[in-house]
Amino acid sequence: xxxxxxxxLAFLTLLFVGVGAHPxxxxxxxxxxxxxxxxxxxxxxxxxxxxxxxxxxxxxxIVVAGSSSNGTNNEFTVxxxxxxxxxxxxxxxxxxxxxxxxxxxxxxxxxxxxDxxIVLAGxxxxxxxxxxxxxxxxxxxxxxxxxxxxxxxxxxxxxxxxxxxxxxxxDxxIVVAGSSATGGDSNFAxxxxxxxxxxxxxxxxxxxxxxxxxxxxxxxxxxxxxxIVVAGYSDNGAQRVFxxxxxxxxxxxxxxxxxxxxxxxxxxxxxxxxxxxxxxDxxIVVAGSSSNGSDNDFALxxxxxxxxxxxxxxxxxxxxxxxxxxxxxxNSVALxxDxxIVVAGSSDNGAQRVFxxxxxxxxxxxxxxxxxxxxxxxxxxxxxxxxxxxxxxDxxIVVVGSSxxxxxxxxAILRYGQPAATAPGAPTIGSATALSPTSVSxxxxxxxxxxxxxxxxxxxxxxxxxxxxxxxxxxSGSITITGLTSSTAYTFRVTAANSAGTSSASGAxxxxxxxxxxxxxxxxxxxxxxxxxxxxxxxxxxxxxxxKNSLVTSKVISLEMFTKAEISGITAENIAxxxxxxxxxxxxxRADLNQVLKIARKYEVVGKxxxxxxxxxxxxxxxxxxxxxxxxxxxxAITSTIKKLPASDRSSYASIKKAIDAKMAEIQTRKDRxxxxxxRINSRYSK
Length: 687
Fold this sequence. Notes:
The protein is an alpha+beta fold. Helices cover about 20% and strands about 35% of the residues. It contains nine helices and 36 strands.
């Protein structure tokens, strides 16, 4: 009986893990931040070891229970790992503890008390018979002497007894489920210990026959109302089927569960339930394996709280999952906080046994967000068996079992899920472009490292002012910041943020000055015009002072100096004549700039006449430059004369003056003739 039971236990899950809030979900890929590429192997000696159960402490440390050989017999074995997969040296100095109980002992289940103490349950051979064995350890790995004085207790119920699963009630009492055999027939067995290791006299040790042949319990869980659910298999004489029993808090069968506290369900031709978990709505999820006649597949059933099959789960309450063609055994189930169901076990890939994990949605369908098809297998050594699964508070999935190194088996632990996300790297800054007096667009390039999580936002911040703009996207792009001040110089930096945090800031953009506002532009234009006029006036006065100095010192005055002095009429064509006229000025007139202005004025008028602008040249202008006498009565006639000059004579002052003098002489001749005529007439009539 013993050997048969232990052979079956090689594929068992032995723990129900209570789950809390899980903000993230494992992706199905191995977590590279755990051990070596998501895998940890622990060796105790040169013989076989098997990790059979896992529990996660509140601080995230991982406790694994199983058995290892000391070379002669097996011992209870417990290890504790840090969150990165390294052995915890604060736990018995090397992270590993072995405990001898009887002549041979195997631990199949582990649970963590609220005070952090660690409880292991399994079986031990005492005096040649199999007994239920329980050990409790302090948080440092030492045996707890307050538990049955030496930290260990063994109990018998029938002729041969085996503990497969342990759970701690909210009041600290310890519930152990397994099997008890008498007369060659095994039945479900359930016992409860007080916190000091003594049997709880208020709880009647339950030995429950379910079918006509062997019945073995492999997993126990406690409902929120304190009722106890046990799952395993029952042999009805024709085949093995899933078997579930529910007990009241005193150990009696709960008659509200399928009328007699027991329910059996056939799926295939041979079915073994290995693990049970309770959903937050009270529904009961049981995982195991089912034979299709040629090999075994993962099998999953969900019951309503009354023990009936849940028709909302895959239509009939049952789910079968095939990994390959050589058979799979599901050994453990755990529930995520979002209602998804994780099942772990082993699968034969045709060459060897490998770890196998499946995740289901709440309706029983495979979760395609988990490794694309809801299933993943992982090879470690030359033969791998997964026996227990737990969900961390961050949603990562931890699976434990054994892996063969070619000669013997070692503890094997895998963790699935991406490494914990960190803040992303800093974006690369681009350029800043002013869009208006109060807004700027900033370009950026996404960082190469997103921190292991999708970047959700980018934020640009101004200096000065710390004014921000934000975009909600994961890739490169641009950000517009509004609310800036016009005519102000700014630089900008950009940060990226994901679910884990915010990056350091990028480098700064080149400084950019926002354009002036409309009112600023008007004021600025007027100010610029005024400044330009003042500058021109200053340059003019400076040039005129330089011209005056040149007159006194008999220096040649350049065309550029005349232009700066705003003395018009002097061109490249007549500058030589102007310089000659200035040189001919009497020495006494050389300090008088007006003399130069008169010369320039003369050439300005000549220039207008040359360009056929005679109409703009008034007689007073001709008087001003000395072409006609101031008292001349024939100004209009002289102006007309100038207009009639040939083009070749209009550009020369001398030619113009000659024409005017000739006209004046002509007018004077006519005037004299007229005077003679008048004189003769007056003389005739006076006689």
